[in-house]
Known about the structure:
Blueprint: H1 2-12, H2 18-23, E1 46-48, H3 55-58, H4 71-74, H5 78-83, E2 93-94, H6 95-105, E3 110-113, H7 120-126, E4 133-135, H8 140-154, E5 158-162, H9 166-169, H10 172-180, E6 185-191, H11 207-211, E7 217-220, H12 227-239, E8 245-251, H13 252-256, E9 258-259, H14 270-275, H15 282-294, E10 298-302, H16 310-320, E11 324-326, E12 342-345, H17 352-360, E13 363-367, H18 373-376, E14 387-392, E15 406-409, H19 412-424, H20 432-437, H21 443-455, H22 470-480, E16 486-489, H23 493-501, E17 510-511, H24 522-536, E18 544-549, H25 550-554, H26 560-565, E19 571-576, H27 581-590, H28 607-610, H29 620-626, E20 631-634, H30 637-649, E21 654-659
Parallel strand pairs: 3-4, 3-5, 5-6, 6-8, 7-8, 10-11, 10-13, 11-12, 13-14, 14-15, 16-17, 16-18, 18-19, 19-21, 20-21
Antiparallel strand pairs: 1-7, 2-9
Helix pairs in contact: 6-7, 6-12, 8-10, 8-24, 15-19, 16-19, 17-21, 22-23, 22-30
Amino acid sequence: xxxxxxxxxxxxxxxxxxxxxxxxxxxxxxxxxxxxxxxxxxxxxxxxxxxxxxxxxxxxxxxxxxxxxxxxxxxxxxxxxxxxxxxxxxxxxxxxxxxxxxxxxxxxxxxxxxxxxxxxxxxxxxxxxxxxxxxxxxxxxxxxxxxxxxxxxxxxxxxxxxxxxxxxxxxxxxxxxxxxxxxxxxxxxxxxxxxxxxxxxxxxxxxxxxxxxxxxxxxxxxxxxxxxxxxxxxxxxxxxxxxxxxxxxxxxxxxxxxxxxxxxxxxxxxxxxxxxxxxxxxxxxxxxxxxxxxxxxxxxxxxxxxxxxxxxxxxxxxxxxxxxxxxxxxxxxxxxxxxxxxxxxxxxxxxxxxxxxxxxxxxxxxxxxxxxxxxxxxxxxxxxxxxxxxxxxxxxxxxxxxxxxxxxxxxxxxxxxxxxxxxxxxxxxxxxxxxxxxxxxxxxxxxxxxxxxxxxxxxxxxxxxxxxxxxxxxxxxxxxxxxxxxxxxxxxxxxxxxxxxxxxxxxxxxxxxxxxxxxxxxxxxxxxxxxxxxxxxxxxxxxxxxxxxxxxxxxxxxxxxxxxxxxxxxxxxxxxxxxxxxxxxxxxxxxxxxxxxxxxxxxxxxxxxxxxxxxxxxxxxxxxxxxxxxxxxxxxxxxxxxxxxxxxxxxxxxxxxxxxxxxxxxxxxxxxxxxxxxxxxxxxxxxxxx
Length: 690
């Protein structure tokens, strides 16, 4: 039955995005899966890649029986494992206890798990752990987004656990989200007993097959002895190379099987290591620096691949005096408050001057980016004057959307570090001071971009009397927090406003759903970030703010219970316009303002028409208080700062419901498929569009 299910899935799965997904997979997709007889059930764990092939079929076992991890990669979990003590000694224990102990050895302090019939054994084992805290989210989608928030804040692997069937399928959106945003995550699911797999048993879903296109790798554990190896592999795969989610599916009878684990087992990842890029060479660095030497108008295009090397990004940009634009996922990799070199975000809702700089550049230094459609718009018009340098750890991204004249497949941080060392050694006297002293440098180019910044500053309409514009509200929170908060968002207008008006000066303080655009991301991600700060000892000094829209917030509002019960002091700022604001904006611009199910309030009376607070629906303040979370609503600008101060001073979670006009538009805006020349810089819902 297992063999038939694997084969059928492999043959019927559409190859959509196969090149990109396969590039992140540890095992060769050129191998064909062979049939496995039903008699092998329960003998070999299924280590399943995108082709349906198993590790045994691909023969990546260590030949000499030693661990095939290189020495520098062996250290991935060494600190936790080195100080770990086996509380069972040499005594047998359940597979579920082996799993929990394997997580302890990986250094897991906090995870997010919701129990069910097929995962009860894991939860029982968690109660026997003295070092792992489980935060009980109220929905599996909440827990997977919380694991993402934890991972994005710490840079470590986020962990979530769900039961079989609907519990597992509720993780799917989060897995896809983590895949597209390259978030390191290990998701563990309970499964029906091995003998029942393929029989349509109660709460059975083939989660390995379902999740295969949206995970970096996944496993179906069929031998209890394989748990230590599989968990080590899962954590290593999730965090190495281009990070991503790994799913481990464990049948209930495996969880109940008694065993004495062997911890130091060889990993079966030889093929994965062969596919990892080598460190950058001096020749790679010289090719990039030579291109910089020839350029007159260079721009650094910095993405999510730079969040772990912000210091190197900043040093490199300042050393050369090159303007920097950042993607939605890369915000904070370079300080947004640097008025000289930082041009803010580029793309559909990026600044005019950032998009202008890319349009006019003769050299585009693309570091840790994937030339996403929301950045490039019309591909053939994007940076069409520029020589393109593309540095990325994933070979599938190089020249995928835009041809790279200087391709470097290597880790971005290592590449920048090498180039910074060469610049410190006065390589070709490229540093800003030396270059400008002899008439080189990019002073004229910076002045050109600065003029565009003066012509098209970030701005929004003057309010009517006490009206609160969402952009202004975000600026007020930025000022009140001194820009020091960890910020999460849902998806919609509020997300873009936060990206535009909260000026991040460091990476890993911005948590948002970029590639997938998952509404409901904000609150769960914020509680995951809050848990991370507690583990890091920073909870008292760094606030966590969830900027959310009323539509996005409701999608996971049940997590108000989690932040209350778990005493997580998340601060929620709801920019409440009673509509699906981003869709409304497109209706205004391109559909003659025809409202097609984008109003979220009462059908008989709209607050924006009546100005009656009783017509606000749903009542976010009442909702929050019903969960035990203090809350307040503001209508006027004069109330805003006092309300923010109250929110920040509250010891625990707090919800601030900020009523904003539904006519506000996120500007600038480049329509889908457009180019810089199509930029829209004015107008709102009151404007008549032809």
